[in-house]
Amino acid sequence: MLTRKQHELLRFINDRLAQTGVPPSFDEMKDALDLRSKSGIHRLIMALEERGFIRRLPNRARAIEVIRVPELAPKPQPQRGRFSPSVVEGGLAGRAVQPPAAVARDDRGTIAIPVMGRIAAGTPISAIQDVSHTVTMPADMLVGGEHYALEVRGDSMVEAGILDGDTVVIRRQDVANTGDIIVALIDEEEATLKRLRKRGSSIALEAANPAYETRVLGPDRVKIQGRLVGLVRRY
Description:
Elements: H1 4-20, H2 26-33, H3 38-50, E1 54-56, E2 64-66, E3 110-120, E4 133-138, E5 147-153, E6 167-171, E7 181-186, E8 190-199, E9 202-206, E10 215-217, E11 222-232
Parallel strand pairs: 3-5
Antiparallel strand pairs: 1-2, 3-4, 5-6, 6-11, 7-8, 7-11, 8-9, 9-10
Helix pairs in contact: 1-3, 2-3
C-alpha cells in the first residue's frame, strides 16, 4: 500500500513517461508534489523502488521505469500524514476495530492491539495505516490512551533492544520527553522509529546504532505520532 504522496509521485512519473517517453527531473517532481526539497523526492523514489513499483536503471541519468501502477487511488485520510489507530477489545485477531471507549480486558486479562503496518528503524519508510492483524498484550501493561502496533524494519535501534522483525506497541500522543523512543513523521511524508532529543529549538532523532547518524531537524518538520510503551518478539 502506498501513501498519498507516493501514489501522487508514481502517477506523475507514469503520466510523464506516457506523454514524452522521458521521466521528469527531481525538480519537476518536487514542484508537482509541492515539496520543499529534493530530499523528500529522493525518499519517495526509494520507497517506490523498495515496494517494486519502479526501477531505476543504472548508468543513465533520470532513468526510471514504472513497473506497475495501483488500479485504485488510496482512500483520502481525514488527517493528512497522521495515523488513525484504534484499540480493539481483547480476543482473536481479525475482530472488528472498536473505539477506545469499548476497550476492556478479556477473561485472560489481555487486550488485542491492532498492527497498523511497518515502521523503519533505519532509513525512513512509510507506516501503513491499515490493520493487518493484532497482537495480544497484558492489559496491565497499557495505562490509558489509545495504542497501536507497528512491525519494525531495520537495525538502527538494536542497542535499545529493538530488532528487525520486532513489533513495537505505541501509545498514541503528539508530545514526548527527551529520551523517549517515538514514532516521528518527517516532512508529512515518512515515518521512523527513533529516540527523541531536544536541542534548543531543534529536534534530534537519534539512532541506537553507531552506524547511523543523528538527524537534527526543525520542529516544523517533525510530528510526534506516539511513544514506545512495549515490544513483542517472535522466537
